[in-house]
Description:
Layout: E1 4-9, H1 18-29, E2 36-43, H2 48-52, E3 57-62, H3 72-81, E4 85-88, H4 93-98, E5 105-110, H5 119-131, E6 134-137, H6 140-148, E7 157-159, H7 175-182, E8 189-194, H8 203-209, E9 217-222, H9 228-237, E10 244-247, H10 254-259, E11 262-265, E12 269-270, H11 274-281, E13 286-290, E14 292-293, E15 309-312, H12 325-340, H13 342-359, H14 362-377
Parallel strand pairs: 1-2, 1-4, 2-3, 4-5, 5-6, 6-7, 8-9, 8-11, 9-10, 11-13, 12-14, 13-15
Helix pairs in contact: 1-14
Amino acid sequence: MVPxxxxxxxxxxxxxxxxxxxxxxxxxxxxxxxxxxHMCFAYRxxxxxxxxxxxxxxxxxxxxxxxxxxWGRIRRLILQQRFDILxxxxxxxxxxxxxxxxxxxxxxxxxxxxxxxxIRDRLAWRVLRHRIDKFICITRQIREKMIETGYAVSPQAHxxxxxxxxxxxxxxxxxxxxxxxxxxxxxxxxxGMVGRQVWWKGGEDLLRILAFLPENWHxxxxxxxxxxxxxxxxxxxxxxxxxxxFVQALGDVRPAYxxxxxxxxxxRFEPFGLVIAEAMASRVPVVGLSGxxxxxENEYPLVTAxxxxxxxxxxxxxxxxxxxxxxxxxxxxxIVTLDSNGDEKFRMVERAHRWVRERFSLPIQxxxxxxxYDQVLGISTA
Length: 382
């Protein structure tokens, strides 16, 4: 029998963020002859992952982390299935206490690390340092920060860059058919974002740039989140409410990318940028503003100078500062120029498509994750 891995998440819901897509991708990527993958969701019931997964999914059905009476469900699952590794995509700190004394080794994905000042947060990381066998950091920047803060020691922190199911994004739907499916206008140019609607994703800047783009350019937001109503309010304040379109969160995001003329990346900070890779794989030109994040780190960049059109923010470290009109106007001019230059746009899109296929696709991530599991279990591959 091959070793068994239990991937742990909060909920089976695309609105929970990129960690869910990372977990699903890993389950697809890892060679099933080396490891048997399972997914476990702490809260609520089945969602889109259950509909398309080819591996077992388990649902604990807890109401919240305070549902102490049902903490034992995860313990029973682990004992019944005899998992060898618990792989945490999300924190679920309560489960660390609920599973004290059980034998599985523990791996934790670290997608983002903030300089939390709350004593509770710092204590939680200190606890995890002694409970986790290996931290998988999605960028070198995050690994270095883990070590600097004392939340991990060097041998404990390992870098595995995110990947996407590249093949899944090939042969996209016809643009007009995708727009009809999503209720989007058929004749205008669409600049869109896909993902959670939270302030740091920079949706405000996408709305503001519409004022500098020709009237036939419209903005699209695909997703949901706490910033949804605020984005609608900002659209009205900017006078672009008739050029701003909102589509609910999708279990299958391929029609969203197929509908776009350009993907807008405006995040104030972004640990990796899965949506960038998805857009590139879908052959959608990536345009926008570069802030803080690991998507362009020198060691293994996702974004390069020739595969995307990202202008640097005027004050990248000030996450709360709206971008200057001067920068937005300059970006708008470059977007129009790129869109009108078919040859240059084609070359940029093809470079990006090839870059993602060669560096951020399933086989690469699957091998690196499996090698990490080998290290944790002491399996020699020699």
